[in-house]
């Protein structure tokens, strides 16, 4: 036996007598639950196709139980084309309003960023300034030494130039390098003194104090 033969009919499953599938009985029936079963049996077509009787049973069930689940039908999901232009209008208006507000907020933010609030810049501490000055002096000193070294390297005598080697005086070259280093050191010390005087200078200093600074 196949599945169709073993499957019970709804009329047997619900235990509804065959004589209840009748206009007279349906018109007098007051049991909503039984009427739901009769409607299901008639819709299934297992006992035959009776459109008028099915409609009569559905109308009776609608009187007894208007919210019956048998009156619920699945509807297909509708796309955007299901809405008319009139239905789309409030959606488009809302979208445009949001875009306008976003533009206004962006413009206001840019305007606020350009406004000068008159707040002075953050001051740097003296220690940081001193470090910056020391770094500048070291950089200049290193640059001077590097320049002197590069000058010496450019004047280096080739190993095959025997004529210049005969004229080369090692003592004189050492003396020249020492003088160059002394000049660099004196320049650094002079700038350090100037920086110290500038830091110690005050607008309301007396003449005596200014003379002491010059010393």
Automatic annotation (TrEMBL):
GO terms for molecular function: heat shock protein binding. It is found in: Cytoplasm. One of its GO terms (cellular component) is cytosol. Residues 188-215 are annotated as: Disordered. GO terms for biological process: protein targeting to mitochondrion. Residues 205-215 have a biased composition (Polar residues). Coiled coil: none annotated. The keyword Cytoplasm applies. Keywords: Cytoplasm, Repeat, TPR repeat. This is Sperm-associated antigen 1. It comes from Bactrocera dorsalis (Oriental fruit fly).
